[in-house]
């Protein structure tokens, strides 16, 4: 009597869930920026409307400002305080 070996296929190994915060935007370059209370209040007000984290909201505001700067022929006048950019961003989303 001959013995026939059956080959049993193994199920693929399951990936273990990684512990910690997921990588969302890549490494990037950390940047420390000093902001004054009126700026933070305006940004946090905009964040409460959007539900974004503060870093993501600031990235979106910078992207928005850069995109709008490309559309205009000249940069905004220096008398235009940065806080107005936040207010304009909030109005644009409304």
Structural summary, described in words:
By secondary structure, the protein is an all-alpha fold. The protein has a domain at 40-70 and 77-93. Helices cover 47% and strands 0% of the residues. It has helices at 37-50, 54-71, 82-93. Helix 1 (37-50) packs parallel to helix 3. The longest helix is centred in the middle third of the chain and has 18 residues, at 54-71. The radius of gyration is 25 Å and the shape is elongated. The termini are far apart. 6% of the residues are buried. The model has no long low-confidence stretch (mean pLDDT 76).
How does the helix and strand content classify structurally?
Answer: mainly alpha
Q: What form results from the Cα inertia axes?
A: elongated
* First-to-last CA distance: 82 Å
Major sheet attributes: none
Measured by DSSP, the beta-strand proportion falls in: under 5%
**Low-pLDDT sequence parts:** none
- Helix count equals 3
Average pLDDT over all residues: 76
Which key features would you list for this structure?
94 residues, mainly alpha, 47% helix
Concise overview:
This protein is mostly helical and about 90 residues long. Helix content is about 45%, strand content about 0%.
Topology overview:
Blueprint: H1 37-50, H2 54-71, H3 82-93
Helix pairs in contact: 1-3
